[in-house]
Write a structure and sequence with these properties.
This protein is mainly beta. The protein has 1 helix and 10 strands; from the N terminus they run ββββββαββββ.
Amino acid sequence: MWNRVGICVFALMVSVGAAGCGGGNNGSGASDHVFFDNLPKDIGASGHFEGTFSLPSNATVTYSVTNTGASTTSWNVGIAPASELPAFEADQMWQAYAPHNDVSTISDSASVPAGDYALALRCTNIVNDCSFTFSVDAVF
């Protein structure tokens, strides 16, 4: 099930495409597919970021975001379906799998149906930029 994610003040459009696929068999016939692996990113205060990826079948998606900037940095983050990205970009309420509000370093996972998604992250800082590394992988 997906949940509502809180939002902040402004939107800064930044997009990144999927960084590739790989991985191994986890013993159940499913394989680990790495979309992003510890990539660094900086976004402006109140800005947002979308790391897009596609799932050809139902999957367990795991993400992690690690703060590499100021200790007071925080963001709202979740796995957003492509249909929710216009609301996310417009700084409106949006829905996501494994959502978290006003967090810094975070890791989570969720069972997600096949489709197009993004690791959606909005910097909740009013003044300071958000600096972080992020990873997303899926088992399907």
